[in-house]
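Purpose: get a first structural picture of the assembly so the mutagenesis plan has something to point at.
Setup: two entries, given in the order below. No constraints added.
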Amino acid sequence: MNILVILKTALKAVMKNKMRSFLTALGIIIGVSAVIAMVSMGAGAKISVEKQVASLGRDVLMVFPGSHDAAGRHSGFGTITTLIADDADAIVKDASAVALASPTVRSTAQVVYGNMNWTTSVSGVSKDYLEIRAWDLEKGENFTTSDNKGSTKVCIIGKDIVTNLFDEVDPIGKIIRIKNFPFKVIGVLTARGQSMGGQSQDDVILVPLTTAQKKLLGITYVNGIMLSAKSSDLMETATTQIQEILRQRHRIRAGKDDDFTVRNSADIAAAGSAITTALTFLLGGIASVSLIVGGIGIMNIMLVSVVERTREIGIRMAVGARSRDILSQFLIEAIFLSVVGGLLGILLGVLLSSLIASLANWSTYVSFFSIIIAFLFSAGIGVFFGFYPALKASRLDPIDALHYE
Amino acid sequence: MRSVQDNIIQLKKITKVYDTGAVQVEALRGINLDIKKGEFVAIMGASGSGKSTLLNIISCMDRPTKGEYFLMGKDVSKLGGDQLASVRNKTIGIVFQNFNLLSRTTALENVELPALYSGLSSKPRREKAMQTLKEVGLEDWWHHHPNQLSGGQQQRVAIARAMINQPPILLADEPTGNLDSKTSVEILGIFQKLNKEKGITIIIVTHETDIARYAARIVGFRDGLIIKDEIVSNRLWADKVLKNNHFRKKKGGVAV
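Result (structure tokens, whole complex):
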């Protein structure tokens, strides 16, 4: 019997019992669409994380101060004050793999313009900070070297500050008060939208580092250094060079722990992608359970179908059907149900994922790969769960089958 | 002494034992039977005489417990399932008492079925099925489903199905058991025609003497043994019976 005849026979058997066939396929439809939708959520999360990591800037490295270890007490990350702005200059000068560096300090402050006020994060940075993080200015200009040297009271503000303080007014050249010090607005950052966690990335004010250290915080150390490597290949080299320079500058003897931590965007990306990959597998795994339940549904119906059609099987055997003819007939029928269910499930899954994207505000991404996998998996389910009933049918005794009532 | 080639069917000491667990039932107790090519044999016996068991063995639906079965000179008593299926497909056509047609399938598709399993491709298969249907006078009914056909018509479809692969042997198990007397004679007429015109060896199983008299030879069964094997002296011919007798009128029967 050729494949076309088998297919036709299977199609006929499926069409004889439309409602039942549909319900059987429904199990697979739900299973496949669940897998597609869930995996698309995981993939969407992964892409969001990747975007966010990319928003750190390209080939970015970060140096954070380390933690105290005193008498066995381990205090928190960044409690050491040994990291200073000169470290950044030294690294740029001596580390061949490092292109730019900007020391950073952070604080939270209330800002006032006219009768409006807003509490936001104020960061002290050098003029290279924007380039390192690949942030653009919508209008106005960047800091200059002399701004840092002279601790001038100028600032660059994010889009949220513009909306909250200025309304319709052009902020460039206006004076805002940060912790009661007057600052002149010299630039506005291009809007970058929400981060993965739903925080605004535009709720930020940048001021020259020395201004922040002296006027706003009253400190001489820095909270971190942002650096960029000369190329992606040089990330590891840059890390090593930074470690060597800082250990030397901080006079750390061999065998002692660093008093700082160097991280790079590639590591952060890897960590983020590990989490989202786990999320994808988790969601996909949960959805796969429903696919397996759908497969069991197919097996169940095929078993019933074999019993119901015992006489048909007997007749076919009596006129010369071999066991493998009967086996392939029922197997193809099961595969047909699961493949059609799989195809409909893919459609529904794509629909669901775009629905999730628009209703739950969760970015989703349906990859071609996940569609192929879902399709193959559903066909595999047909083979796996259809095989036993088909085998049972093919092993029937022709005489018993013919006399089955 | 007849040569092996003459005997299209040769049964030697065929024994069939059904093991029902607690009891062993001996349905056939050492049957010897030779049937020549082109014969028309009726196997007679009451129910439980073993005639159906014998039919199952001859039709290659079942294997004997002991003994040898030569079909066209070849021992088929030890063949595997797929080889037996091939014999049923090409060498022996089977007709049943209850027709055993596939429901919700057209007459033509029912006739096509054995050709499907012999691997005939779609177009010649359809043509051959149509031609075979024509031979039993049902070419105009090809698209009807079994439940739209009379019993006689259904049995004709079944005969066409049995004949599509042109087997040399046709086996019929109580082929008239579910039919009225006139239709029965018509069906027997088809068998006689196939036997006479195409030289097909025909074996029918029946418990009715009237039906058996349409055959040329009667083999009688009782308790798993052959108790009589004789040539029919006053053989009935279906066409003559149909001409002379007045049967009650019944719709749907088509004269041969």
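Confidence is low (pLDDT under 50) at residues 250-256 of chain B.
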